[in-house]
Amino acid sequence: MSEIIIGIIGGTGLDNPDILKDRTEKVTTTPFGNPSDALILGNIEGVPVVLLARHGRKHNISPTDVNYRANIWALKQEGCTHVIATNACGSLQEEIAPGDLIIIDNFIDRTTKRQQTFYDGHTENFKAICHLPMEPAFCQDTRKIILETAKEIGVNARDGGTIVVIEGPRFSSIAESNLFRSWGAHVIGMTSIPEIVLAKEAGLCYGVIAMATDYDCWRDIGEKVSHKNVLEIFHQNVQKVLQLLTALIPRMGRKDWGTAMEDAQALAKNSIFH
Ligand code: ADE
């Protein structure tokens, strides 16, 4: 069995979940500035976990202003080998209903204002250029164990889906929503990019548990997305995510990860162009 430390990035509605034992707080900084909040250290059935609220525990940092680089690097500095992120998202497909969980496996990037690499050419020790492959975008073993755990505990979770990541903070126009549907995207959110990319660049095994909270605005019937219904639906269904995380972490601790962690680190290292 491999020694693992699991970072959990709590998104909207999961800013401060009470799922850790022996909780302590650690204020930290990184070469890229401060993460969104203090790290919460603890464990689930003895497996070490580091919790971080993506938007801060008071939920006061907008998707554009989240310091994604500091968040991922803070988890890396704390020794994390894996990151499980949670995300609220809108559904772009009829068959994905509000409250459903989706274990996404692909993305379309529509963000415009975010730094997507640690290797920016000026931060000390990050002066190289990193050309990182994006297929597969997610750690396959991490996605697989999330899906297996969900099945085992009877929580419905969709295997795969493409998320369109928009800059926000506004929601999409109906023309945009229909465009994203025509591209074959399944869900829409505001924070998976650059988080996915940076986790990969840091050599971490990263997976997402996304929850659909609305049908965005493309549907003729029903409510259009609003901040209020995102929060309402997330809160109504949050127990599913907590149940899944609570079963997942011990299972990840017991798993033989083979060469997955070394492979993730080697890919990151081999993508750097000096
Ligand atoms: N997060 C939750 N619902 C969303 C939507 N419809 N668009 C973008 N981000 C979201």
TrEMBL record:
GO terms for molecular function: purine-nucleoside phosphorylase activity. Residues 6-249 form the Nucleoside phosphorylase domain. One of its GO terms (cellular component) is nucleus. Pfam families: PNP_UDP_1 (PF01048). The record marks 172, 227 as: Important for substrate specificity. Its EC number is 2.4.2.1. Belongs to the PNP/MTAP phosphorylase family. MTAP subfamily. This is Purine nucleoside phosphorylase. It comes from Hypothenemus hampei.
